[in-house]
Amino acid sequence: MQHIIEGFLSFQKEVFPQRKELFRSLASSQNPKALFISCSDSRLVPELVTQQEPGQLFVIRNAGNIVPSFGPEPGGVSATIEYAVVALGVTDIVICGHSNCGAMKAIADNANLDPMPAVSHWLRYSDAAKAVVDQKTWDNPTDKVNAMVQENVIAQLNNVKTHPSVAVGLRNNAIRLHGWVYDIESGDIRALDKDSKSFVSLSDNPQVYFE
């Protein structure tokens, strides 16, 4: 914990004074243009990967970058999506998975999650992705996990479209959806292309989006 406190002290002493005007401008309001939904994994830092400043990304993070379908009793993810779209007026929603995701590996490996019943319940929101992946026989466990990561991004994109605020935004061409997979080792991102329905290099195809 001490190194975290020391990091704050360094921020307060060295970083904040240099960025004082930025934080002053953000003190009373924010105007992010994108909602970024990613895994809680400590190796994926949305603002670092996208080089965005404070105030530019509205972020949801949870195990497996999961978006439950809209239901009669909306939870925290649903409320945050609605706020981002209706109150903040974001124009882009990114769902970003990543390589070697522990949540997706647990699903791919059929891991025993009995000691973590809440996690087990949460990962059921990835059942659609698991159903697709399980249709194929996998010789390489790593390939199966990679497929699970990609299919989960697709499943969560389909889930986010069930949210009324997102559905309205899509119908009015006010929102675009993006599906990304970040590779931790290389720093690359592969994005889901709406035309080919496959993941392509974002570096080579910076204009690509899902819907």
UniProtKB/TrEMBL annotation:
Enzyme class, UniProt record, top EC level: lyase
The keyword Lyase appears for this protein: yes
Cross-referenced InterPro entries: Beta_CA_cladeB, Carbonic_anhydrase, Carbonic_anhydrase_CS, Carbonic_anhydrase_sf
Reaction it catalyzes: hydrogencarbonate + H(+) = CO2 + H2O
E.C. code: 4.2.1.1
Cofactor: Zn(2+)
Protein name as catalogued: Carbonic anhydrase
Listed CDD domains: beta_CA_cladeB
Organism of derivation: Pseudomonas tritici
Classification via PANTHER family: CARBONIC ANHYDRASE (PTHR11002), CARBONIC ANHYDRASE 1 (PTHR11002:SF42)
Entry's transmembrane regions: none
Gene3D superfamilies from the UniProt entry: Carbonic anhydrase
